[in-house]
Amino acid sequence: MLKALFLDMDETLCDTSKANDIAKRELSQRAQSMCGNSLHSEQFVERYVQGIYRQWTPVQQQRYMPIIEQHSEDEFRVQLIQDLLADMQQPAITVKNALLLQNCFDNERLAAFDFFPGIELFLRDMRKRMTLVVITNGPVFSQVPKVQRVNLAQHVDHIIIGGQEKQQKPARSIFTKALRLAACENHEVIHVGDGLTPDIGGANASSIKSVWVRHNQSFDKTLGITPDYIIEHPGELPDFLNHYLNNLSSMA
């Protein structure tokens, strides 16, 4: 019997890529306006997004983690902007102007952040049948506003934000917490997510069945991570879960 459904948020329930693309266009225009034609604004934006997603070099890791740990995510992002522009041979900009660029990206992304089509109805239907727990990685700085933007608490029973925990996915502890909140055992739940390592690897390590939302990602078999099920897009979730539940009923 399936008692609970664990769900990732970004790229599983919500179209974060679409929101990012809109925010990147706006940031590119704002940065170009601020710095002039000498700035390769699209390259700057791509490097900024890589930075906020922690796709760091070892040198960047050494520089930015202390800022995050000792100060704030906000200060890290401002420093990242200043560093990137300096690295691209741009004149130094003030903290105030760096903050304007950071806020441009954050505000535009948040305004565009929403569920994939059909997901709200899917959550409403599933919540009638089982407990829903969202497990999302990421800093409080960005994840809490996104959770609030889509009013996620009205659609699910529990929300776990990795940035508020000691460990994030794929750590077993965060799945253990989800099991406790849902009051179920690992064989009574299925986890859905787009991250092969954090979502599928984490679920597998906790002996939880997993559904990988592939989004046309390549399947890196060298990772040694195999999902129990694969769907290509979140739009397939309603049909998949209904079919899965029907199969469970027929076997009961």
Question: If you had to describe this structure to a student in words, what would you say it looks like?
Answer:
With 252 residues, this protein is an alpha/beta fold. It folds into two domains: 149 residues, Rossmann fold (3-Layer(aba) Sandwich); 96 residues. It is 53% helix and 11% strand. The protein contains ten helices and six strands. It has a six-stranded parallel sheet, sandwiched between helices. The protein is elongated, with a radius of gyration of 20 Å. The chain starts with a strand and ends with a helix. One of its GO terms (molecular function) is N-acylneuraminate-9-phosphatase activity. Pfam families: Hydrolase.
Features:
2 domains; alpha/beta; HAD-like_hydrolase; elongated; 6-stranded parallel β-sheet
Distance between the termini: 8 Å
Structural class: alpha/beta
Uncertain stretches of 5 or more adjacent residues: none
Largest sheet: 6 strands, parallel
Mean pLDDT level: 96
Order of helices and strands: EHHHHHHEHEHEHEEH
CATH architecture of the largest domain: 3-Layer(aba) Sandwich
Structure summary, number of beta strands: 6
| Radius of gyration, taken over Cα atoms and rounded to an integer in Å | 20 Å
- Helix content, binned percent: 40-55%
CATH topology tier name of the largest domain = Rossmann fold
The number of helical elements comes to: 10
Q: Specify the overall morphology.
A: elongated
Q: What's the name of the CATH homologous superfamily of the largest domain? A: HAD superfamily/HAD-like
